[in-house]
Amino acid sequence: MNIGEAASASGVSAKMIRHYEGIGLLPPASRTDAGYRQYSDKDVGMLRFIRHSRDLGFSLDQISELLDLWQNRKRSSRQVKALAQTHIAELDEKLKELQEMKATLEYLAHCCNGDDRPDCPIIESLASDAAARGRRRTASSTLV
């Protein structure tokens, strides 16, 4: 099947298929005499595996490792579980960061009157944080 058909069958865009080939996540497709890419059912299966892994938030490096484990019938499930647990810990950390961001925004939104006056704690907080980061960058660059 051609790249468009493989994209439809796998749910991965043609652009991403080319990208995955380019970075070595997917082996290079065979080519027709005219140079068009041709994909097998096995390739589509790999693309579906990649897509589902991406849907679960795995990084490309983790997906590469998962693909290797998937294709290695001598692997232990312990290796797969360890990779999944590492990813769960990463997701927990991201979730914590998102919850902290949400709490901060909820507090700032609560403090904002949302009226016709220009006073806005949300803008003031963003401006003061930006100024503080600028001062830290300036101070650290003068220390070098």
UniProtKB/TrEMBL annotation:
Primary location group: cytoplasm
SUPFAM superfamilies for the chain: Putative DNA-binding domain
InterPro entries listed in its UniProt record: CueR, DNA-bd_dom_put_sf, MerR-type_HTH_dom, MerR_fam, Tscrpt_reg_MerR_DNA-bd
GO biological process assignments: positive regulation of DNA-templated transcription
Entry keyword annotation includes Disulfide bond: no
Coiled-coil features, chain-numbered ranges: 81-108
MF term (GO), any: DNA-binding transcription factor activity
Assigned keywords, A-Z: Coiled coil, Cytoplasm, DNA-binding, Transcription, Transcription regulation
Superkingdom, natural source: Bacteria
Residues of the HTH merR-type domain: 1-69
Any Gene Ontology CC annotation: cytoplasm
Cellular localisation: Cytoplasm
Keyword Transmembrane: no
Protein name in UniProt: Cu(I)-responsive transcriptional regulator
